[in-house]
Design a protein that fits this description.
The protein is of the alpha/beta class. Helix content is 27%, strand content 28%.
Length: 270
């Protein structure tokens, strides 16, 4: 294991409407990703189900213990000795009528070492046709979460969180070198804001930002932007996906983090 280099794969999918379908879809992508010999595989938000229909979501969503997508990721990580970032799963919560939007960081032994519930819920009116009210369906998270790894600390965030820079400042103060931003960005906001928000969080905090996205057309006429992205600590785009499903792979130079922070020590000055 090379702690100065990190080999990553971003799995960008066009998610389906049930956990069972997404589990089968994900298994194919995870298996294909092995040819890139990654250290960590990253996946997007809404990995188990994506839809615009809340009634359908509540019908097909499972609890964490019964989620086939999570089971697939755990078994795959253990079998193939890979770390996996499960972007997020939309899960039933036994203690609430509302669901949780929860991400997981799984180590190469198949153990969940961290999980995070989305703090900032997507309550917006983008235009007359596209209105989102996540707070009606989801329970808000209340804890900032860091995942430890052999390559450094990862800050776990989800999609709409990217618009709240204080969260990322708190994560970098906790020692994070990487931010994970799985997403299911809308097309209008993706075109306008996706890159600039991700690059801003990278530049402000001299961190790598790793953002794996949903793409394409989904159940209930929902559409997502795609364009999975990795930004380095200087703000350069290291890797960018397209609007189509695919696996995007690269190697991150971890010495760049120290180099940039030496030249631009802003995280130590507030």
């Amino acid at each position: 294991m090379n702690k100065k280099k990190l080999k990553v794969c971003l799995v960008q999918i066009e998610g389906r409407e049930t956990p069972e379908l997404n589990s089968k879809l994900l298994k194919k992508y995870l298996t294909t990703s092995l040819k890139f010999i990654p250290d960590i595989i990253f996946t997007p938000e809404c990995l188990n189900v994506i839809t615009s229909k809340k009634a359908h979501l509540k019908k097909v969503a499972t609890t964490q213990n019964n989620c086939p997508v999570l089971h697939e990721c755990i078994n795959f990580a253990k079998k193939h000795n890979k770390f996996i970032s499960v972007g997020s799963l939309l899960l039933k919560n036994n203690n609430s009528k509302k669901l949780v939007n929860r991400s997981f960081f799984i180590n190469n032994e198949g153990k969940i070492i961290s999980h995070y519930d989305k703090i900032h819920l997507f309550d917006v009116k983008i235009n007359k046709k596209e209105i989102h009210q996540e707070s009606k369906t989801f329970k808000k998270g209340n804890k900032i979460v860091v995942a430890n790894s052999p390559w450094g600390k990862f800050g776990l965030t989800i999609c709409y969180d990217i618009r709240f820079p204080i969260l990322y400042r708190k994560l970098v103060k906790l020692g994070c070198k990487f931010f994970i931003v799985p997403a299911a960005f809308t097309i209008p906001t993706g075109k306008a804001h996706w890159q600039i928000l991700l690059r801003s969080r990278a530049i402000e905090n001299t961190c790598y930002v790793i953002a794996t996205a949903q793409c394409g057309n989904h159940h209930g006429s929902r559409q997502t932007y795609g364009h999975s992205l990795i930004v380095d600590p200087w703000g350069n785009n290291v890797l960018e996906g397209s609007t189509k499903p695919g696996i995007f792979s690269t190697t991150l130079d971890l010495e760049l983090i120290h180099s940039v922070r030496t030249r631009m020590p802003s995280i130590y000055q507030d």
